[in-house]
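Q: Please design a sequence for this.
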């Protein structure tokens, strides 16, 4: 891609700690960014670093479908998609409720994959489209105490690898980013359980910079080692 200036990107979860940084850095480089938040009442918070704001509830299949329809039926093409939304839960696997597991799988995997597949043709039309998913280090190393969260992220990663091979033929590059624990504040907003002491995490701005660099430098994968050192 080399230059994102004049390109149009969708950042799902642009109000979150990492999504906000990615959206802001893309905007600073001249891209037009469409940012999403779950609630319409919070859309104004993204006005300073996105060109357009859309509410989409990843737990609501109708909301996700309407979002995809909106983006594919408009006159503006898309060049990039960043999947930066997510939820987390903590606790023993045996204590994980069906509702918690369902929300983790829906928000972290199914809904985001619905968006990616729904927008794939539009991204292909750009001739140089890119999808970035954020599965995280737990997709490489499933971790005790967050088994359900690890599973949801592993599902996202597995799909990105397989679908990415298919989409290359359509001129769409899928980059899966797997940074370790990042200080986004997500751990303090767990949908179940209490976060353990992870120690100091990665800085969101630094992780975002590495991801944006991968977009412009035509990289194809960002394993956890890409965020170390």
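A: Design:
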């Amino acid at each position: 891609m080399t230059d994102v200036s004049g390109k149009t990107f969708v950042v799902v979860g642009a109000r979150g700690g990492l999504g906000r940084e990615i959206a802001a850095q893309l905007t600073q480089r001249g891209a037009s960014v469409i940012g999403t938040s779950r609630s319409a009442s919070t859309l104004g918070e993204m006005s300073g670093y996105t060109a357009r704001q859309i509410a989409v509830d990843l737990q609501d299949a109708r909301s996700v479908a309407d979002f995809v329809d909106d983006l594919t039926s408009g006159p503006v093409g898309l060049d990039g998609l960043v999947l930066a939304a997510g939820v987390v839960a903590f606790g023993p696997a045996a204590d994980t409720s069906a509702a918690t597991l369902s929300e983790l799988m829906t928000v972290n995997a199914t809904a985001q994959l619905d968006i990616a597949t729904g927008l794939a043709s539009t991204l292909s039309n750009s001739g140089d489209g890119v999808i970035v998913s954020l599965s995280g280090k737990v997709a490489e190393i499933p971790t005790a105490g967050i088994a359900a969260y690890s599973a949801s992220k592993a599902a996202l990663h597995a799909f990105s690898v397989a679908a990415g091979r298919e989409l290359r033929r359509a001129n769409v590059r899928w980059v899966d980013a797997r940074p370790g624990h990042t200080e986004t504040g997500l751990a303090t907003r767990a949908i179940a359980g209490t976060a353990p002491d992870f120690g100091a995490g990665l800085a969101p701005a630094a992780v975002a910079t590495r991801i944006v660099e991968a977009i412009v430098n035509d990289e194809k994968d960002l394993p956890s080692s890409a965020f170390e050192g």
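Q: Thanks. Anything notable?
A: The helical segments are 17-28, 61-73, 98-125, 147-167, 204-216. The chain has five helices and six strands.
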